[in-house]
Amino acid sequence: MVGLRGRAPKWDRFAHWAPGAAILVLAGFALLLVLAVLTDRSDIDPERVTPPEGELVEELVEEVVNTEFADGEDERDTDLQLYDRIAERVADGENYYAVAVEEQRARDFPVRPGLAVRLPTLAFLTAWLGQGGLIALAALLGLATLLAWWRRLDDEPGGEENRPIALLLLVVGTMIGLKPQYLALHEVWAGVLLALSFGLHRRDKWALSWLAAAAALAIREHALPFVLLMGALAAFRRDWRELAAWAALVLLFILALALHLSNVSDYVSDSDPTSPSWLVFRGLGGWTANMVNSSVLHLLPGWLAAPIVLLPLLGWAGWKSDMGLFALLLFVGYGVFFMFAGRDNNFYWGLVVAPAWFVGLAFLPRALRSLWNSARGH
User: N or C, where is the chain less crowded by C-beta within 10 Å?
Assistant: First the structure.
C-alpha cells in the first residue's frame, strides 16, 4: 500500500514486547490473588450485618442445593419481608410511595436520601403477577438467558468449543439468585436481565439487548454502569446509531430517577433519619466479599474463596473476542465500584453481575496457555 512500504505490521513491530508483557500480566495477577488471600474482609461476619439493609447473610449461606420455596410460615429476612409487604399493599391499590415510606419507617429503615427507597417497578410487577407469576417469569428469563448465550457463544471465536462448560457456569452463577425465596430482591432481577442483555447483544442487532438492559435499569439503578459501558464501546466502534440508543436510555433513566426522588420527597420529612453513607472504601476485600457472598463460593473459607472469585477475570482477559473484552471491562469496573461504594451489609449488590461472572472460568485454560507461550517467546 502507498505510504506503508517498508513498514512492518504493528503486531510484528511490537512482538518483541509480548514475552515481557505476559510475564508482567502473570506476576500482576498472582499478586492480586495473594492480596485477595490476605485481605481481612473476604468474609462477612453475620453479626456485623445490621439494618437498615437487612440480614441476608443467614439466608444466603443456606445450602445452594436447597431450592424449596420458603412459604408464608417460614421466617423471612427483614428486607424480604419489607418488599413482600409493600407489594401486598400495592396489590390492594395503595400508593407505592406512601406505603414504601411507611413500611420502611416501621422497620427503622431510613428513607433519606430518596435512593434508600427502591424504584417501584418490581413492587408493581409483583403485585400484578403474584408470587406464582414471578416464579414463572424467573424461569422464562433463565431459559431465555441460556438460549441467548448459547447462540452468542456460537458467534464468538472459541465460544462454541467452550460452550457446554460456559453455560454450566452461567447456571451456577444464577443458582442462588433465582431461588424462589430471593425473587423479592431487586438485584436478582437486574442481574439476570443484564446477563440476558449481554447474551443478546450483537454489533448489528442490539435492540433486544437494549430492551433487556432497560428493564434491568428500571428495577435497580445499579445496572447503569452496564448501560454506560455499552454506550462507550458503541462510541469506540463509531456506531453512532447504537450510541444514540444507549444515550437515550441513560437520559430516560435520569428523568425517571428524578421523578422517583421527587415522589419520595413528598412523603419524607426532615425528622426522618438519614442512611449512612454508601461511599465506604473497603478495598479489595469489599470486591471479593460482594462476589463471594453472592455466589456458591460462600460455602468455602474466605481465604480460599477470595482468590477463586477473581480467577474468571483472567479467563475473560485471555479470550480475544467482543464478549471477552466487554466482560473484562464490565466486571473490573464493577469490582472497582465495590471497592469504593457499599457497606459490608450491601454485599448482595454483587448479584447484579454474579450470573455471568463465572463464565470466564471456561476460558481460563486458554488464557493461561496463551500467556505461558507468550512468556516463553513462542
Answer: N
